[in-house]
Amino acid sequence: MALINPPAWMQAGSYPARTDRLVIASLLGYPGFLVDEATPMRIRQGVKPSYLNQQLKVRAAPTPNMTVIVSGGYAFIDNHDAGGQGTYVCANDGDVILNVQPAGGAGQFRKDCVIASVYDAETAGSASEWRLEVIQGTYAASAGAAVRPSLPPNAQILADLAIAPSQTSVAAANITDIRQFSVAAGGILPVPSASAPNRPHPGQAMYLTDLDVFRYGRLDGSTNTITPDQNIPWITPSVGTGYTTGGTTAGSPGNRNGPIRYRKVFRDGTPYMEWDGGATRVAGAQTANILAGTLPGPYIPYAVRSVSVARNATAITSVANSNSVVHTVKVDFDTAGAVTLIAATAGDVETTWFSLAGVSYPLA
Length: 364
Description:
Elements: H1 17-28, E1 46-47, E2 58-60, E3 67-70, E4 73-78, E5 87-92, E6 96-99, E7 110-119, E8 129-135, E9 155-163, E10 175-177, E11 189-191, E12 205-208, E13 213-217, E14 223-226, E15 243-245, E16 261-267, E17 270-276, E18 278-281, E19 305-313, E20 326-333, E21 339-342, E22 353-355, E23 360-362
Parallel strand pairs: 11-12
Antiparallel strand pairs: 1-4, 2-3, 3-6, 4-5, 7-8, 7-9, 9-10, 12-13, 13-14, 15-18, 16-17, 17-23, 18-22, 19-20, 20-21
């Protein structure tokens, strides 16, 4: 049992480095992940957050070659060799160039890792230093089959590198930033949603950089989203071939429902999509994406959302007065990001205009 910050009269001429590490851990605070709950003296290790999160960022050389550059910054890394050993502060005061091993031959793909790692002879091995290094992955028959290599126990991953057969340089497209960020308990943590801690400190706020939302920790270990101002601007996408987006004046496409547009809002912490507007469709343009492209990731539902929307009146065979009724047609909002009109090719169910006004569904 270590005595942290003992009174001056108890100070000796020297004391174990572990004491300093435990002081650092006590200032950084909360573990952050459920797996660490059984070891409460751990912290949520990671890179110190900063404006635009440039600390220890891995980037390609100005003229890409088989090296990468790691920018300056701080990392906080726990000792996982033994329990209760505390946390290391690793400082890099400028750009560091790291060599990437040559690529393999035909059919040889691999995934390398750029890491910050600590080696401490007090708890394991003979080295006592911290390093920025590239760990080479094993070869695989395809890029999708390549897996991350085994890493030292006291390591913080900074980036993955995708290395293809006979590759002669590492460009920005080959680098995937997978840093996680550490923060003192209670501070706001900027982090992508995929690497957000599952047990943040109660009341700790996180800014999810890819979703542009705030989330906070609750007393039971769960999280909830801080509902933002709902005055969220609409996004007006381009429509696909065969469709003309709506207008608002007499004779406009889409039965004057206005242009197709969408936005994401929050209701009791749950993200929802809202749609508005309408479009006119060229006869025969069936089951194609209504939009010119797919929706961005944050606007795609986790499961297909099928809804019925209003369409033009049309006569239905053998149904009296059916041409005076506005009918419906199905639209699928799918997990690939397409918005698909589901209709037949011709006949009674032909669709000339439709409306998305009022369509709403949860994204998660």
